[in-house]
Amino acid sequence: MSGNPPNPDFNWKVKYEGVHRERQFGSADALYSSMGIERQDKDARLMAMLRNWTFFDAPHAAFFTMAKYLDIMGAGDLGIYAQSLALRMTEQGIGSCLQGALGQCPDPVRAFLDIPDDHGILFGMSFGYADDDAPVNTARTDREPLSSSVAFVS
Question: Where are the domains of the chain?
Answer without folding.
Answer: 16-51, 58-133
